[in-house]
Amino acid sequence: MAYQYPVVVIGGGIIGLSIALSVQANGTDVLLIDKHEIGSGASFGNAGHIATEQVFPIADPAVLKSIPKMLLDPLGPLRLDWRYLLPLTPWLCKLVGNMRHKPFTHIHRTLTTLNRAAFDSWQTFIQKWQLSDLVKMEGSLLVAEKNETLDKLGEHSEYLTKIGVKNQLIQQAELLQREPALSTSQLGGIFYPDTGHVIDLAELHSRLTQSFINLGGRVLTHCEVTQITSTSNLEATVTTTQGVFSGRKVVIAGGAFSKSLVRMVSRINVPLETERGYHLMLPQEGRRLNIPVSSMDRRFIMTPMAGGLRLAGTVEYAGLKRPPNMQRAHHFLPLAEPMLTTPLNSQESTPWMGFRPSTSDSLPVIDHKGPYIFAFGHQHLGLTQAAITADIVNCFIHEQPTAVDCSPFSIERFL
To answer: Considering the entire predicted model, what is its pTM?
Structure first.
């Protein structure tokens, strides 16, 4: 016998959790399922940056000429495990195809629109769930340490202003006034006012989960989905290691693991790959910076958190099964130190690796077909787009108009 719920959400990362909470708060009961703990995957280990300024596809023609050099550096910002090249090739070919002018422009404009809405959604989400002590919408910095990079930042700033992305080009004196811990090797940068960061991701997930439970939501952890079936557009059945559940709507929000879930319900082969990302957490360095600082030259980010300073970034293509190379995480330390006035304290530092879910066109899948709702594939922007995705899915379920045009996020674009 199947236990019945109006909505079953599969995936307890920040996307699935935000959806479950928003739908429950709107008066519809939700069962939230995760095969591990809530918020334990990429949602736990991401950079903590609400990066609404990142409006370009992951496949940017501007970095093409830099790719060979990156690939030759075993600890550089981009790595491809050559043993994974064959299964990666179809996705890679589609990714390169999206670098052409027409698809690139479409993706760029869509991300710009979505991230603009994402900022507003986060502001509302913070206020509704009283998160102002955990989520700081105080801006972020992108810095340069070469004159040629500074020139590029100037051009980038002008372009972003033209398309409505708020930013401020700042010279070295103002940069060092904002972040005194930065070395004089940093020549200037861009300040993005409409961005933010989470100072404690684990506490964020804990608090949102408790709010969800307080509203009557149910959580099942260490619960793996083995089958999803439906006999009509009105209901679907989810078979798991902890029982069978039916829902009028089943939301697939499994991040990098969504591809296998989609295969259970659709013939569409979604070009979804995992970009493995790393971080190094420095628990002794929580007060080094005030806001997130990204380096355009070094291609990584430093985010101040309650539990220390998080150094994060890199892209590694090696699939879901290869063991992590934690040297990539420890390599952040020699990357970061030349940017700062004094050496970092790396005592008790902890490395981490996780999986970012990236489609070949850099856009998430946010769609509904029959009893199924899809909400995955947010690449580096899962945290950034969590609140707006929850708003959209909530509108799907309650048959309300969405804040943005969702046609670019249709799963059928991959037919």
So the answer is: 0.96
What is the rounded distance in angstroms from the CA atom of residue 309 to the CA atom of residue 296?
Answer: 19
Separation between Cα atoms, residue 248 and residue 132, nearest integer Å: 34
**Residue 178 class from Cβ within 10 Å (0-12 exposed, 13-18 middle, 19+ buried)?**
middle
Q: Which amino acid is it at 253?
A: A
The CA-based dihedral angle spanning residues 350, 382, 164, 156, taken in that order and rounded to the nearest 10 degrees: 40
Instruction: Kindly state the DSSP code that residue 317 receives in the 8-state scheme.
Output: E
- The distance in angstroms from the start CA to the end CA of the chain is 35
Three-state SS annotation for 271-297: CEEEEEEEEEEECCCCCCCCCCEEECC
Which residue do the tokens 């090739």 mark? 89
CB 170 within 8 A of CB 188: yes
In the predicted model, is pLDDT for residue 65 greater than 90? Answer: no
Beta bridge partners of 366: 375
Give the length of the chain. Answer: 415
Residue 374 contacts residue 410 (beta carbons within 8 Å): no
pLDDT digits (tens, 9 = 90+) for 333-373: 999 999 999 999 999 999 999 999 999 999 999 999 999 99
φ, ψ of residue 386 to 5 degrees: the values are -65, -50
